[in-house]
Amino acid sequence: MTSTCDVLVLGGGGAGLRAAIAAVEADPDVRVAIISKVYPMRSHTVSAEGGAAGVIAADDSLDEHAYDTVSGSDWLCDQEAVEAFVREAPEELLRLEHWGCPWSREPDGRVAVRAFGGMKKMRTWFAADKTGFHLLHTLFQTSLRYERIVRYDEWFVTRLLVDDGRVRGVVAIELMSGRIETITAKTVVICAGGCGRVFPFTTNANIKTGDGMALAFRAGAPLKDMEFVQYHPTGLPFTGILITEAARAEGGLLLNKDGYRYLQDYDLGKPDSRPVLRSMELGPRDRLSQAFVKEAEKGRTVDSPYGPIVHLDLRHLGEDVINAKLPFVRELCLSYEHIDPVRELIPVRPVVHYMMGGIHTDIVGATPVAGLYSAGEAACVSINGANRLGSNSLPECLVFGARAGRAAAEYAAEAPDHDDAAAGHATAAQARDEIRRLEHELQRRDEGREPISTIRAEMQQTLEEGAGIYRSADSLAKAADKLHELQERYARARIDDHSRTFNTEFVALLELSCMLDVAESIVHCALRREESRGAHQRTDFPARDDQRFLANSLIHRNADGSMRVEYLPVTVTRWPPGERVYGR
Ligand SMILES: Cc1cc2nc3c(=O)[nH]c(=O)nc-3n(C[C@H](O)[C@H](O)[C@H](O)COP(=O)(O)OP(=O)(O)OC[C@H]3O[C@@H](n4cnc5c(N)ncnc54)[C@H](O)[C@@H]3O)c2cc1C
Question: Which residues form the FAD-dependent oxidoreductase 2 FAD-binding domain (predicted)?
Fold first, then answer.
């Protein structure tokens, strides 16, 4: 069966919902569909805790937000994109307010803002520590006002259809029935989120398997800056559950095994530094995660069954502040660690949190493939460069989701209709191929083959060991070899469930294939970048090298499946490369 729309948004998270709303608002005739492998409110955006950055305070300015973002990115971002971002972020956040988002407020009624890592002014809007829930809910209920937005909830996209260099639609599985369908579209906007699950310890939900990145990559769109993977310094050790940066913004301290605030030893300021916003616990995530590794090397971390940990201390904040500003942090600690942060220290370690890299787009979300757009964590526009600042991602989803939605609607209005016979024929042939492939995959039988779980676990371990917080040519080359082996083993792996109704094992099989492709792109890009910048730290090339690498990496997939990396110089508008200074 085939269905048709003009703009097909792949993903019902913050970026996808914002893109869909922008598309219908831009054009009264456009037919929009949102397709999502989970019900939209279960997208990862829902779990964002800390907040969304946008200049609103009287003592703040757009230039300061831009500068913090540029220096935080270690100068690898596109400064034109950053300028658009900081300008439009407050507008988007206010729009959300008008759509009903319950932002936390000061006693006098003004929108409250909190400090966040690497932001030198208070500019992070929040809804207690459940910002993502409220933001997503606001977008979701706004999207319901538009009958022209059709939804495919719990449908899994397996392939982009591209003919003659143009996107034609997707093939997807309806998870409830196992039915495989073609949905043709004039444009596809990929808002399919990140890929943290390629690593073993991550704050990311199970669904974050890089599907959108892999689908675009396979369809001929390059991925950008895949070597830049963000570790968040404070995840719970076993589950990887995030303890939001807001905990440190409210005054939480990081202590080593001696109860010492070790960050003062890593050029991140001193306990008495002024202003406090620039120092220590509120340094950027890359620096804090790197300091943790150094501290472990000095033997000053605490051993735990899940590797070394340090402690996050909130006790001095008191029960009232914790309940008012960080209720979710308390709930998570009680449920998952059986500790109460009002009285006890929280064990934490760096965990993979966010992907700076993604599908290469321009400033309106267009990729090099005609009709293919992308926004949100799946995309790399890039405002995050080598290191994203906390609370920039949610507004990025809004600003660039809206831009991509509008641009896609415009493109669809000009694109020829679907009844172009030759194109329709080629698209139908591709769709038939994909349906045959999926039917074949579903039948992978036992015959002594290995299950997919071992391949997935080995892939995650390989990435942590080979492409973790610190990397080297040696560790990355080993990881590349191992991933090659895992791709071969994947081709022979089995699944045990061959049924059609909600076959989660089948979905896991398809997701693993996406993760392996994404993992290979991370490792290849990391191997090529012979410098250290932001989240990419090479022990064999410890310095930043602007001469060779003030450029975004673009990884392409060749027709034979091999990969090729090119570099695209970054756009510098007003802030030439400088030193990243914190704590001073
Ligand atoms: C625990 C946590 C806390 C965070 N806190 C903050 C914060 O406080 N501030 C901040 O700025 N950022 C935060 N972030 C980052 C931020 O939340 C994410 O980067 C952002 O929400 C991503 O939104 P998205 O719309 O791009 O993707 P997602 O919200 O991940 O949505 C992806 C969508 O794509 C769909 N999809 C994926 N693959 C397929 C497929 N094959 N077929 C069909 N559908 C598919 C999914 O169903 C889903 O609807 C946090 C992240 C985490 C993990």
Answer: 6-394
The whole-number pLDDT of residue 560 equals 87
Residue 330 assigned ligand-binding role? no
In this prediction, residue 422 carries a pLDDT of 66
pLDDT of residue 277: 64
Domain 2-49+128-229+354-422, CATH homologous superfamily name and number: FAD/NAD(P)-binding domain (3.50.50.60)
pLDDT of residue 276: 61
Map out the domains of the chain as residue ranges: 2-49+128-229+354-422, 235-350, 424-551
424-551 to CATH, choices 1.10.10.10, 3.90.1300.10, 1.20.58.100, 3.40.720.10: 1.20.58.100
**Alpha-carbon gap, residue 312 to 10, rounded angstroms:** 38
Name the residue of 133, 393, 398, 514 whose CB sits within 8 Å of the most ligand 1 atoms, as the mutation to test its pocket.
393
Cα–ligand 1 centroid distance for 106 (angstroms)? 28
Give pLDDT, residue 95: 98
Which percentage of the chain shows pLDDT scores above 90? 88
* Closest alpha carbon to 87 in 55, 120, 113: 55
Q: Of 518, 558, 513, whose CA–CA distance to 159 is shortest?
A: 513
411 is in an annotated binding site: no
The H-assigned helical ranges of 415-451 are 421-442
Whether 391 contacts 50, CB under 8 Å: yes
Check: CB of residue 537 under 8 Å from CB of residue 231. no
Note the pLDDT of residue 503. Answer: 98
> Does pTM surpass 0.85?
yes
Give me the chain's average pLDDT, please.
Answer: 95
Say which CATH topology domain 235-350 has. Answer: Flavocytochrome C3; Chain A, domain 1 (3.90.700)
Distance CA 72, CA 155 (A): 37
What pLDDT, on the 0 to 100 scale, is given for residue 449? 87
In the chain, which residues have pLDDT < 50? none
